[in-house]
Specification:
InterPro entries: ALG2, Glyco_trans_1, Glyco_trans_4-like_N. The chain has 465 residues and is an alpha/beta fold. The chain has 18 helices and 13 strands. The chain has helices at 2-19, 34-48, 93-109, 114-118, 132-138, 152-155, 163-180, 191-200, 257-265, 273-285, 296-301, 317-326, 342-348, 361-364, 378-391, 394-411, 414-429, 437-461; strands at residues 22-27, 52-57, 75-78, 122-126, 144-148, 185-188, 209-211, 244-246, 290-293, 309-312, 327-332, 353-356, 371-374. Strand 9, helix 11 and strand 10 form a beta-alpha-beta unit. The chain starts with a helix and ends with a helix.
C-alpha cells in the first residue's frame, strides 16, 4: 500500500512538471505556408498538453496568417523587425533573415527582460538555424529543439545562378551546417528528408536527428458529411454528375501538375502565372478543353458541360471541402516532395490518393490500400485513373477510403505530433548541456561584422547585379 502511495505521488509530480513547461518558439515569418502550419499545430498541441507557449516572430500579418495566430489561441509576439528589412531592394534575403533573427533574439534576451520573465524550459526553432549559437550562449542551460524542414542550401540551389551568387551563398551554407550543431535535438519531417540531411551533412551526428511527422487535424472535420461514408457527386450548372479527379497544388513547375494533365489526356474520355499559361497551352495541345475560374462563386456557377480540365486560381477551405467530398481520386504529382500534407487531407476524407513514388508520399500512402504510388510516366497514371473512374465499384472505393482514414488517425493526428514533441522535450531535460560561451560570443561579433559589410555591399552591388 505504501509503495502505491509513493508511486502515485511520483506520477503526480511528473505530471505537474510537464504542465509547468514553458516552450518559446522562434519563427521568421508567421504566414500561411506549410512550415507555418506545422509551427502552429506544434504550438497548439503542446499548449493542449499543459505547456505554456509563446511564439516570437519577426513578422505576422493578421490578414495573412492562420486563425490560431490571430484569434488569441496562441500568444504571438512580433519582435526584431525594426532595424533590418526582409530584403535590400529585393536582394540579399538570406542575409536579412539572419540579421532579423539575431535582432529578435537580442531584443528579447539582451535589450529587454522579456525572455527572462518568461523563463523558458525549452526552445522550438525552425527554418533558420543561424541564431542557435547566440541563443545557446545567452541561455546555455535551456535545451534547443530545431526543426529542419529541408536543408536551405538545397532549396535555393540554382545551376543557372551567376558565379557571384554562388560565391555569395558559400558562407551562409557553411553557417547553416555549423549552427545546427548547437541544437540539443534536431528533427526532420520525414525519413526522406532525414536521408537528404545525412547526405548533405555526412558529419552531422545521426543520434541527434529525429523524425517528427507534420500532423493533420482529425478532430474538426467540417460538418455536412465531408468525412462521412457518402460521396456526394459535384454538379455544376446543368452539367449533371461528373467523376472528379482532383489535384491540389500551387501553380509551380516543381509541383509537376502537367503530369496529371498528360495522364488525363490518355483516358478514353478524354508557380505562377506563366506556369498556369503553360498548363492551359498543354491542354490545348492535348485536345482537352480547359477553363479557368478565379472565385468560389464563379467556380460553382460555371457551366462546364464541355470542360475537361478546370483550373481554380483560388481554393478557400469551403471550396476545397466541396471538391474533396466530390472527388473519386486525389492525384499528387510533386516529385521528391519533402512530406506533403495534401495526401493526408484527402485520405482523412476517404479519398484514395495517386502519388509520385518518391519523397514523403512513400511514408504516407500505402500501395493498394490507401492509394497508389507510381513513377512519372503519364501512361502509368492514366492506368490508375481509368481503373478508379471506370472499373472500381463504390464499395471498393469506400473500403480504400476507410483504410486511408484509419491510417491518418493512427499515425498523423495532431495528438500524435504533440505527444512526440512532448516526449522529446522531456528527454532533452536530462541531456547534458554544452557550454558554448566563447563560440557564441565569437558568433555575435561575426554576425555584426557580416551584417554591416553585407548591408553596405548590398546597397553598392544591387545596381550592377
Amino acid at each position: 500500500m505504501a509503495t502505491g502511495v509513493v508511486d502515485r505521488t511520483k506520477n503526480g509530480e511528473r505530471e505537474k512538471k510537464k504542465k509547468q513547461k514553458t516552450i518559446v518558439f522562434l519563427h521568421p515569418d508567421l504566414g500561411i505556408g506549410g512550415a507555418e502550419r506545422l509551427v502552429v499545430d506544434a504550438a497548439v498541441g503542446l499548449q493542449r498538453k499543459g505547456c505554456k507557449v509563446v511564439i516570437f516572430t519577426s513578422h505576422c500579418d493578421p490578414g495573412h496568417c492562420f486563425d490560431e495566430a490571430r484569434d488569441g489561441t496562441l500568444d504571438v509576439r512580433v519582435r526584431g523587425n525594426t532595424l533590418v528589412p526582409p530584403s535590400i531592394l529585393g536582394r540579399f534575403s538570406i542575409l536579412c533573415a539572419i540579421l532579423r533573427q539575431i535582432h529578435l533574439i537580442l531584443s528579447i534576451a539582451v535589450f529587454s527582460s522579456e525572455l527572462s520573465d518568461i523563463n523558458p524550459t525549452g526552445f522550438f526553432v525552425d527554418q533558420l538555424s543561424a541564431g542557435l549559437p547566440l541563443l545557446s550562449f545567452l541561455r546555455p542551460q535551456t535545451p534547443i529543439f530545431f526543426y529542419c524542414h529541408f536543408p536551405d542550401l538545397l532549396l535555393v540551389q540554382n545551376r543557372n545562378s551567376s558565379l557571384f551568387k554562388r560565391l555569395y551563398r558559400i558562407p551562409f551554407d557553411a553557417l547553416e551546417q555549423w549552427s545546427m550543431g548547437f541544437a540539443t535535438t534536431t528533427a526532420v519531417n520525414s525519413g526522406f528528408t532525414k536521408s537528404i540531411v545525412a547526405k548533405t551533412w555526412p558529419g552531422y551526428p545521426a543520434e541527434k536527428l529525429r523524425i517528427v511527422y507534420p500532423c493533420i487535424n482529425t478532430s474538426s472535420l467540417p460538418t455536412g458529411g465531408v468525412g462521412d461514408d457518402r460521396r456526394q457527386p459535384l454538379k455544376w450548372s446543368n452539367s449533371g454528375e461528373k467523376s472528379v479527379i482532383l489535384s491540389i497544388n500551387r501553380f509551380e513547375r516543381k509541383k509537376n501538375i502537367g503530369l496529371a494533365v498528360q495522364a488525363f489526356a490518355l483516358l478514353p474520355v478524354g508557380e505562377n502565372v506563366s506556369y498556369h499559361s503553360d498548363l492551359v497551352g498543354l491542354c490545348e495541345g492535348l485536345g482537352l478543353k480547359s477553363a479557368t475560374v478565379k472565385t468560389v462563386v464563379s467556380a460553382l456557377n460555371s457551366s462546364i458541360e464541355d470542360v475537361d480540365v478546370l483550373f481554380l486560381l483560388s481554393v478557400p477551405n469551403a471550396l476545397k471541402e466541396i471538391l474533396l467530398k466530390s472527388a473519386k481520386l486525389l492525384v499528387y504529382t510533386p516529385k521528391e516532395e519533402h512530406f506533403g500534407i495534401v495526401p493526408l487531407e484527402a485520405m482523412l476524407r476517404g479519398v484514395p490518393v495517386l502519388a509520385a513514388d518518391s519523397g514523403g508520399p512513400l511514408e504516407t500512402v500505402v500501395e493498394g490500400k490507401t492509394g497508389w504510388l507510381r513513377a512519372g510516366e503519364p501512361e502509368l497514371w492514366a492506368d490508375v485513373m481509368e481503373r478508379v473512374v471506370g472499373e472500381m465499384t463504390e464499395e471498393e472505393l469506400k473500403r480504400m477510403g476507410e483504410e486511408g482514414k484509419r491510417r491518418v488517425r493512427e499515425n498523423f493526428a495532431e495528438t500524435e505530433m504533440a505527444g512526440r514533441l512532448e516526449g522529446i522535450f522531456e528527454e532533452m531535460d536530462g541531456m547534458e548541456r554544452i557550454q558554448n560561451g566563447l563560440l557564441g560570443a565569437v558568433f555575435v561579433v561575426m554576425a555584426v561584422v557580416m551584417g554591416a559589410v553585407g548591408v553596405v555591399a548590398g546597397l553598392w552591388l544591387v545596381k550592377t547585379w
